[in-house]
Automatic annotation (TrEMBL):
SMART domains: AAA (SM00382), REC (SM00448). InterPro entries: AAA+_ATPase, AAA_lid_NorR, CheY-like_superfamily, Homeodomain-like_sf, HTH_Fis, P-loop_NTPase, Sig_transdc_resp-reg_receiver, Sigma_54_int. It comes from Myxococcus stipitatus (strain DSM 14675 / JCM 12634 / Mx s8). Residues 6-120 form the Response regulatory domain. The lineage of its organism: Bacteria, Pseudomonadati, Myxococcota, Myxococcia, Myxococcales. This is Sigma-54 dependent DNA-binding response regulator.
Length: 472
């Protein structure tokens, strides 16, 4: 069901008002069209609207002034700005003033509809986040950026400013922080959104094949080139190409990439002709490109061409307040994906405390994997510390002192309570398998855990049930 029902169009051109009224009414919206900013403000005061779709140049009150006054009076109003006299500076000014999106005239009607659909999806996520703060668990599509921390919100504001323009962006951050999600958000909120978003990991393709993958090749260009092939730049024409791990590009490919950025043209391998392409390049790296330049491993001119604007994605340890929110969303997702009969409701206070204090070196990707494991192992409505990976709760053991498992530890021995709990759990599992002659189903009943959890722990501890049965 659509969240947006009523739309106010403000444009001094009668033809634009007529076309938008027809198109949007046909899509099920309740549309009212006015000719200038003053009339738009009076209409906004008279009734509630979900969206204001406003031209920039209008008599008496221009669109940017209307935008600021409308947002001040109606903070929840979604505003999309249109202009035939657009520029990057004007787009940035509109977004900075509170516009959700910026559409360049002349436009196709589907571009306006697409902008409204994007705005509607954003509003849906905002509402779900508000529900989550009040104790609900939202259904959040995969691929969306979640977090209420100040550091992440600063990144998202930067993305909102950069999305409408074609500036090359370099995204930096540790592995697992969500650099590709940021790149996708830049694309989704840009005028290029209806066209392709193509992602390539430069470190995952052998150096000898990378140029062919990026720029294409002619038939017979090399031994296995039995047919001509379009490269990823051609596939992304009109849209966005995301170059992940751009620091792994070999120097010959760097030269060709620089030419694309400077001239907007590519030369497929084995071809004498060049092809024009219109592609926005967004790159990402977890390596320090400045240091690679100093070592002569990355071209300085390409570095400055890519690093027009740098977006740094903070690691999870710098946004620990987002951990419970992300955990709840992952729990809800894995409840569905793992088909749990009794869904996990959330984290126990002890588990949440552990997770909030942990450093998460693998960032959001590590948190996601930890929640999948925990949902798989949880026997009750809440995730307990024992359901979390050992690295979260078990401190590394000091050198063995020779103390036996069943002995009372002495001063100077391993006094890690977490390690002791882990050892105790392993010893109970081994004892249950010996008692039941290796029967995993009966052992799970004896241990009072699920069969699934027992199988996971057997694998985690490297236990051979048959060997334990022989010792029984």
């Amino acid at each position: 069901m659509s969240l947006f029902r009523s739309i106010l169009v403000a444009d001094d051109e009668p033809s634009i008002r007529h076309i938008l009224t027809l198109v949007l009414t046909d899509k099920g919206y309740d549309v009212r069209a006015v000719a200038d900013g003053d009339e738009a403000l009076r209409e906004l005061a008279a009734r509630d609207y979900d969206v204001l779709l406003s031209d920039v140049r209008m008599p008496r009150k221009d669109g940017l002034t209307l935008l600021r006054e409308a947002r001040e009076a109606h903070p929840e109003l979604t505003v999309v700005v249109m202009s035939a006299y657009g520029s990057q500076e004007q787009a940035l000014e509109a977004v900075s003033a509170g516009a959700y999106d910026y559409v360049q005239k002349p436009f196709k009607p589907e571009e306006i509809v697409f902008a409204l659909r994007k705005a509607e999806e954003r509003e849906r996520l905002l509402r779900e986040n508000r529900r989550l703060k009040q104790g609900g668990v939202p259904v959040v599509p995969q691929g969306h950026i979640l977090g209420e921390s100040a550091s992440l919100q600063a990144v998202l504001r930067q993305v909102a400013r950069l999305a409408p323009v074609d500036t090359t962006v370099l995204i930096s951050g540790e592995s697992g922080t969500g650099k590709e999600l940021i790149a996708r958000e830049l694309h989704t909120r840009s005028p290029r959104a209806p066209l392709p978003f193509v992602a390539v990991n430069c470190g995952a393709i052998p150096g000898g094949l990378l140029e062919s993958e990026l720029f294409g090749h002619a038939k017979g260009a090399f031994t296995d080139a039995r047919t001509a092939k379009r490269g990823l730049f051609a596939e992304a024409d009109g849209g966005t190409l995301f170059l992940d791990e751009v620091g792994e590009l070999p120097l010959p490919a760097q030269v060709k990439l620089l030419r694309v950025l400077q001239e907007g043209e590519i030369r497929p391998v084995g071809e004498s002709r060049v092809e024009k392409v219109d592609v926005r390049v967004v790159a990402a790296t977890l390596r320090d490109l400045g240091k690679l330049v100093e070592k002569g491993e990355f071209r300085e001119d390409l570095y400055y061409r890519l690093n027009v604007v740098n977006v740094r994605v903070p690691p999870l340890r710098e946004r620990r307040e987002d951990v419970p929110l992300l955990a709840k969303v992952f729990i809800q997702r894995f409840n569905r994906e793992l088909n749990r009969e009794s869904p996990v409701e959330g984290l126990s206070p002890e588990a949440e405390a552990l997770m909030s204090s942990y450093g998460w070196p693998g960032n959001v990707r590590e948190l996601e994997n930890a929640m999948e494991r925990a949902v798989l192992l949880a026997d009750g409505p809440h995730i307990l510390p024992a359901n979390l990976p050992e690295r979260l709760w078990a401190a590394p053991s000091p050198a063995s002192s020779g103390t036996g498992r069943n002995e009372v530890p002495q001063a100077g021995s391993d006094l890690s309570l977490k390690r002791a709990i882990r050892d105790l759990e392993e010893s109970y599992i081994r004892a249950a398998l010996r008692q039941t002659k290796g029967n995993r189903t009966r052992a799970a009943e004896v241990l009072d855990i699920s069969h699934r959890a027992l199988l996971y722990k057997i694998k985690e501890y490297g236990i051979d049930p048959d060997a334990e049965a022989d010792r029984g």
